[in-house]
Amino acid sequence: WLIGAGISAVKLIPMIIYLVSVDWPGAPGDVVPLSALGAAFFSFDQGLFSHSDLNLAGGWHEYGAFLSPVALLLAVWYLLRRFKDYWRWFALAVFFLLLGLGGFAEWSPWKLLGHLPGFGQTRASGRAFQFVLLSVGMLAAFGFDCFMSQMEKENLKRRSRAVAITVIFVFVVGLNLWLALTPISQSFTREPQAPEEWSDDFAQTIGRPERLYNAVLANRGTILVPWLSAYHEGRGLITPERKVLSEYVVRGEVEVNSRLYRGNEIDYRITVSVPGEIALGMGYDPGWKLISHPELDIRDEQGVIAAPFQVGDTALLLEYRTPWFWTSALISLFSLIGVIWLASKLR
Questions:
Q1: What's the pLDDT band for 248 if we cut at 50, 70, 90?
Q2: What pLDDT is stored for residue 304 in this prediction?
Q3: What is the mean pLDDT of residues 244-272?
Q4: How far is it, in rounded angstroms, from Cα 119 to Cα 28?
Q5: Taking the model in full, what pTM does it have?
Q6: C-alpha span between 150 and 301 (Å, rounded)
Q7: CB proximity list for 173: less than 8 A, separation 6 or greater
Q8: Tally of CA atoms within 13 A in the half-sphere of 57 that contains its CB
Q9: CA 293 to chain CA centroid, nearest Å
């Protein structure tokens, strides 16, 4: 446990700090219907915004966990042969499957864990399906090793074994990469698009955070996707006049010549007439810094970034770094070095 926590510190520590500092309501009542499991694990449509007909809380991107048919066959085949030795991986898969189904009963793992410190803030139970993949993947790996050993025992030629390995590898990896093309293509920024429908319930608000995705799909409110803006095609802000913007000027006068979103950077080229502040179509998080003016601070403007600008500025350059990243990375690095040292001593 200590080794695992140390190596994962680069992700674990920032996550814990964020959970402690943000009062985020959990969702103990979320339930994933059994009818959604087929789509979650076996559907060839794994786009970020597909399967809206299932009405899953949080959106499809929280539930899709494609399982390669070949990996499943290898896992089942191996379990049938060596269940007594590797039943723990099966039990782990069943546990996380039940956890992913959400609060379907008072005794469900999702509701029981919700009573523990920290777990009360969890939502989107379908994320647990990723650990079902981990368990099945481990069993599939054991099954693959067993399959190759079986081929050697039957004295098959090396070329035949190489062909079998290549076919399995190409099918599993190729199919997963092919299915990943759709969500990957949806992960890049796009110019704002006007909503097809408009709600008269106009309000300058982002609504309940745990239901933000549903609000986005319904095109309600003025701010579109402040937290999902990195990969939703409706990136931008909407005015009461139903005009879709990439940004708006809070105060001052500035002309935007170009804008570029790339990974963890936002690059604006501007011409300033009167100093002021501009709100960008990107959700605010403490890790964003205005590196073109390190002495100035950005702030939270109704869920999105508000950055100051001054006369003479030709660029606004923002960069995101996860808070506590370098400290956490050093802990992970030293933990990894320690594990390697310990392993060499034990050997």
A1: confident
A2: 78
A3: 88
A4: 10
A5: 0.62
A6: 63
A7: none
A8: 22
A9: 30
